[in-house]
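User: Assemble these into one structure.

Assistant: Restating your components, then the assembled model:
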Amino acid sequence: MPIHMEKNPNSYSPEISGISLSRENLQPGKVWLVGAGPGDPELLTLKAARLIASADAIVYDHLVGEGIVALARPDARLIYAGKQSSRHTLPQPEINELLLALARENLSVVRLKGGDPFIFGRGGEELEALAAAGVPFEVTPGVTAASGCAAYAGFPLTHRDHAQMLTFVTGHRKRDGFDLDWKALAHSCQTLVFYMGVGAAEEIARQLTAHGLSADTAVAVVRHGTLPTQTALFSTLSEFPAQLRAANIEPPALIVVGSVVRLHERLQWFS
Ligand code: SAH
């Protein structure tokens, strides 16, 4: 659902789907690390929406939807700190410095991140910098991409008949390659969710099959999960890398491996 904002900034009152958000005077010189969820603005928590609508300054990443940033006060300072693997807009130390500088200007600062700030979001690193400098902070969790993509692509992440374990994995390689325990990952009774895995699809398929996972294990690749532009590719471990390339699927996309994925055939509801 779109977010509506009144045009007259003097009686500013942002709304999400008819629920109006009251502005609050936030403590100056403090930072709120806030999860923006996977994309659909209605998946924001009430707390996230209230903080976004109230802050003096908002520092946001590329995965945060425009509809969400539009909740900010008309006079709020909006700073794009975008981050995309291999295309970093601001290096991490500069983002840390920026948060410190804004807090020292006595502004209330919302640091807005896609999904949940503590899941592959470097939220911990940013808080460490704030803690070291004695800047007060709070954390607001968000709906992580795994939850959003599974819900909107129509399969559960765990199921008593399919998966008793759920593992979130980063597919982002360090310069010297992966440092993953592939043997532990190649278990049929679990669901694997690879964040940032599109560039590593071939290696994920190769390693998991080499370590014993069946080549016909179900795989879903969900791009732009929870947004009207969502696409989902349903395939198998051996075939998904070629299909993903053929379909030109680019990040941000999530790769989910495990038999729970097949339940989408009966449970799909979002189109
Ligand atoms: N903190 C975020 C993850 C950041 S890592 C969270 O909790 O969701 C960035 C990766 O998340 C992307 O490369 C992609 O793999 C995944 N991602 C984030 N939003 C997504 C979306 N709407 N659809 C599919 N994948 C998404």
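Residues 145-267 form a domain with the Methyltransferase, Cobalt-precorrin-4 Transmethylase; Domain 2 fold (CATH 3.30.950.10).
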